[in-house]
Amino acid sequence: xxxxxxxxxxxxxxxxxxxxxxxxxxENFDFAPKGVSKLHLDVxxxxxxxxIPKIDVIVISxxxxxxxxxxxxxxxxxxxxxxxxxxxxxxxxxxxxxxxxISVETVVSAILTHPxxxxxxxxxxxxxxxxxxxxxxxxxxxxxxxxxxPPDELVENGFTNIMHKKQVSGFxxxxxxxxxxxxxxxxxxxxxxxxxxxxxxxPYRSPDPNKMTKRGPDGRPPxxxxxxxxxPGPVDTWNELVLEIIRREFEGDRNSS
Length: 257
Description:
Strand order of the largest sheet: 3-4-6-7
Radius of gyration: 20 Å
Helix content: 10-25%
Oligomer: single chain
Number of domains: 1
Largest sheet: 4 strands, mixed
Low-confidence stretches: none
């Protein structure tokens, strides 16, 4: 999607959008009609896999798109779906949580077995959201959160916890399949950033100067984003963690050579 080149250090940073990290198509497939996203859970997305040999450090993350409507395909067979399943009399084999774990295993395995990749891969874990009083589309809010949560006030999020668990288990299964000389690290941010309900755009994601930023007379919050991150604390911390992992890995390479 974007590229930034830093001439002073000859470093290029590339951002590649891949919603599910696995192959997606909207063409009709078996009894799934055209237009609905079909995910081949056992096939990595070639939009970024084709660039693997040219990259020194890969940072990947995913998860939240598995809440969106989609059809799940394994071994060229429809095995489940999210917000889509036409035959309620027949149980699905794979739900969205299981699909996420399978996709992580697929992508990480593909990287660890790529014959021409020798770099470092960092898998960032599932990012927690902080919607209170509803979901993103049902009036959920993080309005007025100005400080991190104290340690004893963290509210456990069941969906976040199970997505994190599936991601880690998929990661661990992929590690066992490694055949190349690349390096792999898990950047686990899920629990620690559960405390940072103050780090989201909230009602300020929209640039509209007339946007609502306070609760209405009926107490309802304005439309807002309590999933993505914008405030310096979380964003800067992620950058520092990634840079520290890179520093340690590449310093280790120099010391051993």
